[in-house]
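User: Structure please.
Assistant: Input sequence and predicted structure:
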Amino acid sequence: MKNKLLVILILGLLISGLSGCNTSSTAGSIPTVAVETQSPDSLNDSEQITIYAPMSTSSIPVILAARQFPQVNLVLYADQSQANTEFIRGEVSVLVSGLSVGVDLYKNGVPVQVANSFVSGLSYLVTYGKPVTSLNELVGKSIYIPFEGSPIDEMVGFLVSENGLTWKTDITPVYLPFDSSIELLKQGKADAVVLPEPMVTLVEDQPNVFISLNLAQEWNRVTGSQDGYPQVASFVNPDWAAKNEAFLTEFNQVLGIAIQSVQEDPQTAIDQVKDQYKLSPEKLLKSVSRTRYLLVSGSEMQSSINNYYETIGKPLDENYSDFYFGAAH
C-alpha cells in the first residue's frame, strides 16, 4: 500500500504542464498566490474549501466565482506537479487543471472525479516568418510541442490526420518545453510552435511572429462542432464531493454566471482581477478575447468528454463511468 502511494505521489510530480495554463514562458518563477476572498476571520479551518487554479487567464471566471463563497480559499498556482501532489494528499478540495490531468490521475488509480469543464478554446499554432492558413503548408517542417502525449500533441496529431497527412512523417513533432520553444521561435529557429493563452499574447508582438491557426476552430472545422473541445476542468475527490454536493452544484452555477460576465463585459472582469496577474490589463484583455469559455457539467459534460476522446481515437471505456460527478451512470 505504501509503495502504491509512493508511485502515485511520484506520478503527481511527473504530470507537469498538461493543461497548458501557465501565465508566461517562465511560469516556474511565479510564486503561488492566495487570492483574497470574502472569508471571515472567525471561519474554522475545517469549514474552508481550498480551490487551486492555474495562474492563467483561463482562471479569471474561477476567481470571480470563488469570491462569492466566504468559505473558499482560492490559490493560483504555477507549479502543476506540486498542485497535483497536494490534491492527491487531500490538501486541495478542488483542482482546476487540464482535462488530461484528471484523466491520467484516474487512469493511475487516484480517487478523482471531474466536476465541470469550462474552457473549450485556448491553444494556437504560432509561426515564424509568415502566417499559414492550413497545416498542409507545414509539410516537411516541424511543429514544437511541449511533450509527447500532451493534449496539444493529441490534438495536433488528430488535426494533421484530418488534413490527409501523416503525423510524424509529413510533419514532425519536436518535443520541447514551452520556455525553450518560445526562445527558438523568437530567434527564427522554429517554424511553428503550439502555445496556449496567455503565452500567445506574450509572443505576438515579436518580429516576424504570426498567430496562424486557432486549434479550437480547426477542431470545429473538421468535426462539424461549434463548441470547441473540453480543455480545462475542475477535479474533486469522490468522497469529498459526496459530502459537498450542494457546494459543487452552487459553485457550478456561480461559475456559469461569472463566465457570462467575462464574455459580456471583459473589461470590467479584468479590472476586478488584474491585481492577481503580472500581465498588463491590456494583455489580459487580449488573452481573454482568445480564450473560449464553455461550462458543461453532469451528463452534458460526460457526453462532451466522451465524444472528444472517441473522436481523437482514444475512447474512454466503461471503467470511467465513475469519473463524472453529477452524471447519470
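Confidence is low (pLDDT under 50) at residues 1-32, 36-46.
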